[in-house]
Amino acid sequence: MEAQVAAPHHHHLHHNQKAANLARNFTKLLRRKCADAAPPGAGATEAAPASVAGEDYEETLPMEPSTVPSLSKLKLSGNLAAAYSLDAFFRNAAEKKAAAAAAGARPPPEVPLDAAADALLANLFAGVSAVKAAYAQLQLAQFPYDAEAIQAADAAVVAELTRLSDTKRRYLRDPAAAARGAAAAGHTPLAAHAEEQRHLLKTYQITARKLEADLRAKEAEADRLRSSLTAELRAERTLEARLHPGRTLASLDELHVSGLNPTHFLTALRHTVKSIRSFSKSMLNSMQSAGWDLAAAAAAVHPGVPLRRAGDAKFVFESYVAMKMFANFHRRDFNFSFLDEREFYDRRRFFDEFTELKAAPASAFLDVRNPRWGGFGKFLRAKYLSLVHARMETAFFGRLEQRGIVSAGPGFPESSWFADFAEMARRVWLLHCLFFAFDGGAEQDGASIFQVRTGARFSEVYMESVNDSRADDAVAAAAEDRVVGFTVVPGFRVGRTLIQCRVYLSRPGRRP
Known about the structure:
The protein is mainly alpha-helical.
């Protein structure tokens, strides 16, 4: 019977021992957690009240059966210690959070009214520039029409106008509060100025894109008109070629280097002589308007050659212009150092240059920005300064403005006088290109130029008289009585074809 009673008692003590061990371990864990959660400056005395169970709890082991009720109390005390520790932990965290919130809720420092007003004004300027930028974007989206871009730009305009309207409403309600509100929102004058500049830059970029689009449209229109003009000029040359076969360069439009023949050169020569005659006539008219003595001027050009008629002075000045323009024509570089690269041109390159320049308008070969015709531009200047003397230009125009422009460069005069000269020089240049486009490998296949010296006997094989068809020249029917006064236009030999030079015959029976 005692053994039966002792067994349950021993079993009960074993359960109490396990509970005590659990309570002890739980208490240690709570104490360690409280120590970790406590602030760094807190000591052991501050952490002690957080737990009801002390070190004397460990001394109650082993315990008698009569201590079972106190075990329950200790277990309850352990639960309360955990509750007190967790409550302190979360209470400390809440207090820290509340302190931080209280520190952040402090009112900002008071902004001076002047600084606030400056910030408000700068913000207004930034808003206005934003509206301008958005409106410029709206205009750009309309041409060409872009529905999505128009909607986006319209929304941007409305948003910026709404922002300005809100600012106006706040200002009318309380100007000082509106100014301080703008300053408190971080809209400092410097930031607003930067924003204004950004919107202005955007406006300028949009305007630049719009101008570029307009420029492209104008260039396209100019190209269309240029093509139309080219077609009209081509039709005009074709019609003129039908009316006057061989008198224009239209017959040379479809020319190839392999098909060159002396007839093509003769056509280009007639075209050039026509231009020389026109410019010399303009020069003669300018001399008459300036009151010059034409006989004295003619005698200065060809001294010792008497003229048959007073009207024959035109042949003198035509000869003067032709001799100046055809000087050194037989050389590839016209004896100009700035054209020395032409010494290495072959006949194909001369022909290609002839074809290109023949179709180019005056605006192309007189454009100083076009390096393609830089050599021709220098040729033009050199020939003008050689042909038109300074005293001549002063007498014609009262000043040396055109000569000064030609000498200084890089541009050219825009007068009709210089335009006529430039066209004459272009035709001489074209004839020179065609001259060297003929094969010069063999003497009979090449080309050459010649003129007749003053006093030479007239030969119908090599010469053509410019004044032999007149009625009073019947007395000079005998060939031996006709002598050359001067050469008006030089002659050419192209292959086996001879092109006569045009000469002025002096009085019969007299030699200068």
